[in-house]
Amino acid sequence: xxxxxxxxxxxxxxxxxxxxxxxxxxxxxxxxxxxxxxxxxxxxxxxxxxxxxxxxxxxxxxxxxxxxxxxxxxxxxxxxxxxxxxxxxxxxxxxxxxxxxxxxxxxxxxxxxxxxxxxxxxxxxxxxxxxxxxxxxxxxxxxxxxxxxxxxxxxxxxxxxxxxxxxxxxxxxxxxxxxxxxxxxxxxxxxxxxxxxxxxxxxxxxxxxxxxxxxxxxxxxxxxxxxxxxxxxxxxxxxxxxxxxxxxxxxxxxxxxxxxxxxxxxxxxxxxxxxxxx
Amino acid sequence: xxxxxxxxxxxxxxxxxxxxxxxxxxxxxxxxxxxxxxxxxxxxxxxxxxxxxxxxxxxxxxxxxxxxxxxxxxxxxxxxxxxxxxxxxxxxxxxxxxxxxxxxxxxxxxxxxxxxxxxxxxxxxxxxxxxxxxxxxxxxxxxxxxxxxxxxxxxxxxxxxxxxxxxxxxxxxxxxxxxxxxxxxxxxxxxxxxxxxxxxxxxxxxxxxxxxxxxxxxxxxxxxxxxxxxxxxxxxxxxxxxxxxxxxxxxxxxxxxxxxxxxxxxxxxxxxxxxxxxxxxxxxxxxxxxx
Lengths: 278, 291
Fold this sequence. Notes:
The structure holds two protein chains of two kinds.
Chain A: H1 13-39, H2 58-63, H3 72-100, H4 108-120, H5 123-137, H6 143-168, H7 172-180, H8 185-213, H9 217-220, H10 229-239, H11 244-277
Chain B: H1 3-38, E1 42-44, E2 48-50, H2 56-62, H3 65-99, H4 103-114, H5 121-126, H6 129-132, H7 137-144, H8 159-183, H9 187-195, H10 200-211, H11 213-228, H12 232-238, H13 245-254, H14 258-282, H15 285-290
Antiparallel strand pairs in B: 1-2
Helix pairs in contact in B: 1-14, 3-8, 3-11, 3-13, 8-11, 8-12, 9-10, 11-14, 13-14
């Protein structure tokens, strides 16, 4: 790193002021989540607030008992595969489009601004639109059709922006070298380009998975009669007043954290192997 | 490459971009076009939409004081949230880029800020209940410390809690793009400014702030559109006490009044796009992104 005015010598007072601001922000960011995690172990006296009495796992148990709190397992069995499909499609489609955008072509500006518009259109508006579209086509709304498309319209622009950042740093001389050595187009992509952009592709997959897994507004009118997990949680916020809600929160946050951990460890592993090879 | 190769590769480009274009066409362009079409349809009780063109939905909405009140409430929240998230986002990004000396530490702390983005928004909203509620952590803390004798009831289910929840959910949309812009600033520029006699504040104002404007514009774009398009935070956290532009849409949908919901949605869309266009006029986002 280049030397900055603050690189050497004693730290200025602004460092301590901003470090305090940063620490307070992290507490603000994580404090409530940790509170929910702790309260999900609430005992049978069932208060929604502190203090924690007789810690137990009863509210987790309750989640798997469909008579008491709605169809949590069924909702998970829709949300999880949906998120995996969205992640896979987001990677394939945005990587492919990212390569196309390295050159200028007729219509590139239109497609780019459509993607940006798709990113910023309010989810509720899109939800209504997709529902009306499927009605006109006479097709029933379902998680694997209308909701899948609605999710993609939101994850693809993210994927595309990440690919811009990744491919912007890709030096074209690597591909030229591969061509000079006699590689075909596919060989150059498969053996040279893909390994270089792999960490970026994992990041795109992480965005695709988590954005879909947690999406509410775009799912709301598009999933049909059976809820995905965020919709199920939404229903529970209005009619479940027990710590079971927190237990569900803890479980679904755990799934998100597992996805983040898998993505980050694989990125770190790839980088480490790469620097080891050098 | 020969000219044949060039032609082949230009056709290949369309093949590469086709899946994206198709998804955007069928799941963005057509749905939005249909929303606009339906917004001009007539609504009949029990029947639903009747495909007869009318401007009644718009006339009703635009002449209703409720619509104006809801939009004013939304704009108020948006402005407050934009200011808070910008101040927080700018200084946190500044701290990470210019004050943290070790690159790995900076990346680690940056990840700490971004991890909640990948978790459920609904859970993060709900998690304010045990903190801000009447018997929540803050109130019981304040009572124990003897600062207040009765729990503060404006902490939860109020405009205050709505702003807290928005700031909680959306600040990272400011941090990430501003961090990206700042990380590209050549640090020798700051050194040059200091050598030329600029104060610490002068460097921030005259060098860092102008060079981060793409990040700030992108962050503002995210925060404004997310806040204006939100319905769910305002409902869960305000306890139904605060309205937003989307509450009208929600009410219409409950009565299956799709034409009016669509007209409402189109108005929201136009407002959001106008704000976005204003931001895009300030900076050429694409040029900066592809760079």
